[in-house]
Amino acid sequence: MPLPSDVDRPRLVQGRFRILTVCTGNVCRSPQAAGLLRARLPLLLGPDVTDLLTIESAGTRGLEGSPLDDQAAGEAVRMGVFDVDAHRARQLTRSLVERADLVLGLERAHRGAAVELDPSANRRAFTLTEFAAVLETLVPAQDVPVPGHGAVLQAFLADVVAAATAARGGVAASQSINYDIEDPYQRETRAYRRSAGAIEAAVDSIVRRLGALAGS
Fold it and tell me: Is residue 58 within 8 Å of residue 20, measured between CB atoms?
């Protein structure tokens, strides 16, 4: 597979690279995914990435102003997310999608809702589990340029997104991917644990593969 060119990138990345996670109410799954990415990406890519990344979340039927669901918050803390008290739910909007460099839906419907708001997001929108699966197939220096000393993180991440977009058709055809992470909202404790575990596994896979692609 050819290396992504500037033309192939979803956009010319300037300033902070923005990741948007999307679920339904924005009180369980998407804030957990965003919180885990905020907590774990600096551990592998270095603490400076917090100055270069904005990781936020929204819901297709966002419960505007609501805090994180109590059980979801407990699962988030268990996984090492400690900014749960600051979260307030919000509605997914076109402007949020337009400014995102990578959109990660917790279900296919969430990805679809983002693309409906901004059709150009089709090239930078995935489900969380889909993105994790596609990254597993990418090869450093073959699919994604390995960043050199002082390379711009945002440009590297744009290359990763472009390569993932090019590769995802083949991955979908060759693998059975569970694209949707179940919604635990107002269900039994086991559902919250299963959902959180699936989110944690996908985020850990994404973080690990980004580190490998960056040559960390």
Answer: yes
Q: Please give the structure tokens belonging to residue 36.
A: 């885990």
Which residues contact residue 8 at a Cβ distance below 8 angstroms, ignoring those fewer than 6 apart? 162, 166
Closest to 18 (Cα-Cα) out of 97, 123, 116, 126:
97
CA pair distance 79, 93, nearest whole angstrom: 28
State yes or no: pLDDT of 14 exceeds 60: no
Q: Residue 47 has what pLDDT?
A: 79
CA nearest to 24, candidates 101, 97, 86, 111: 111
Taking only the tens place, the pLDDT of each residue in 89-140 is 999 999 999 999 999 999 999 999 999 999 999 999 999 999 999 999 999 8
